[in-house]
Specification:
The structure holds 2 protein chains of 2 kinds. Chain A contains no helices and 12 strands. Chain A is mainly beta. In chain A, strands 2, 5, 6, 10, 11 and 12 form a 6-stranded mixed sheet that branches. In chain A, strands 3-9-8-7 form a 4-stranded antiparallel sheet, with no helix packed on it. In chain A, strands 1-4 form a two-stranded antiparallel sheet. In chain A, strand 7 and strand 8 form a beta hairpin. The radius of gyration of chain A is 14 Å and the shape is globular. The termini of chain A are far apart. Classes of the chains: A mainly beta, B mainly beta. The interface between A and B is medium-sized, with 24 and 27 residues.
């Protein structure tokens, strides 16, 4: 079945540092890929997505590129801020069939220190 | 426009008791999903409603869990009787009906602790 493996945390960085959170997936066909973020006390928010190979999703300075050859969707940001402290979840949704649910990774806790 | 809301935000119960979680989706969203995250692990799918009908309940762990969505609006998830392993955060999400890529909007979750 479908699965998502993401970098285990927690990750602690200083402000303005470079961020990479690795995510790889296993799925049949060509799934859509997502990064969700959960800020403290809030629900999951869609951060960015990509629906086909080589697509790059971007939002709020974060980027991730859909790499079919390596089945990866790594999240990057060039300069993190304290306000980026949150839990980040990589997820996929298979296309085709009737299934509409998301399959998530285990989440990566990011703490950015001033 | 109001987002997805969930009630309660926290619930602490003893093993063997019953708990009912509620989710109010975004108005007009026919798709409603329940997920849960247990012990800091991955968020796992529980079930999917389309309006009032259960489209997919393949993720429901056992028959102690009962989900309903009468009238196709809000949904409840009842756990009866609760066990220790049911502790975790229960998320609800909703999306518009359609064949395209419809974003799922999540609520803040209900943190359930079973003692």
């Amino acid at each position: 079945g479908d699965s998502v493996t993401q970098m285990e945390g927690p990750v602690t960085l200083s402000e303005e540092a470079f961020l990479t959170i690795n995510c790889t997936y296993t799925a049949t066909g060509y799934p859509s890929l997502f990064w969700y973020v959960q800020y403290p006390g809030e629900g999951l928010q869609l951060l960015l997505k990509a629906t086909k190979a080589d697509d790059k999703g971007s939002n709020k300075g974060f980027e991730a590129t859909y790499r079919k050859e390596t089945t990866s969707f790594h999240l990057e940001k060039g300069s993190v801020q304290v306000s980026d402290s949150a839990v980040y979840f990589c997820a996929l949704r298979s296309v085709g069939g009737s299934a509409r649910q998301l399959t998530f990774g285990s989440g990566t806790q990011l703490t950015v220190l001033p | 426009e109001a987002g997805v809301t969930q009630f309660p935000s926290h619930s602490v119960i003893e093993k063997g008791q019953t708990v009912t979680l509620r989710c109010d989706p975004i108005s007009g969203h026919d798709n409603l999903y329940w997920y849960r995250r247990v012990m800091g692990k991955e968020i796992k799918f529980l079930l999917h409603f389309v309006k009032e009908s259960k489209q997919d309940e393949s993720g429901m762990p056992n028959n102690r869990f009962l989900a309903e969505r009468t009238g196709g609006t809000y949904s409840t998830l009842k756990v009866q009787p609760a066990e220790l392993e049911d502790s975790g955060v229960y998320f609800c999400a909703s999306s518009q009906l359609g064949t395209g890529e419809n974003t799922q909007y999540f609520g803040p979750g209900t943190r359930l602790t079973v003692l």
